[in-house]
Amino acid sequence: MYNQAKDYAKADGMSVEEWVAMLITRFTPAKKKKFKMKKIEELSPELQALIGFAKPNVPNDDDINGDMARTEYLTAKYSL
């Protein structure tokens, strides 16, 4: 294996150490860019509309177990 690396390095005009270092830098994945989420207000109106469409209904802070939300849903569903 070393002899093959030596041959490849020689063909490229490098020492084995330089050749291996070049391979490591070439095939090491680049650091991924860190993306920062934008606030909804910073998005285009079209995207804001899509996000608003997909937002789930969030219960009130005082309705921790969802009783009020369930009552409102059932009242709307079964009342005339």
Briefly say what this structure is.
With 80 residues, the protein is mostly helical. It is built from four helices and no strands.
Helix and strand topology:
Elements (H helix, E strand, L loop, with lengths): L1 H10 L4 H12 L17 H10 L12 H12 L2
Features:
80 residues; mainly alpha
Query: N-to-C terminal Cα separation, in Å?
Result: 82 Å
The low-pLDDT segments are none
Class of secondary structure makeup: mainly alpha
Q: What is the string of SSEs from the N terminus onward?
A: HHHH
Into which percent range does the helicity of residues fall?
55-70%
> In percent, how much strand structure appears in the residues?
under 5%
- Our count of helices gives 4
Largest sheet, described in full? Answer: none
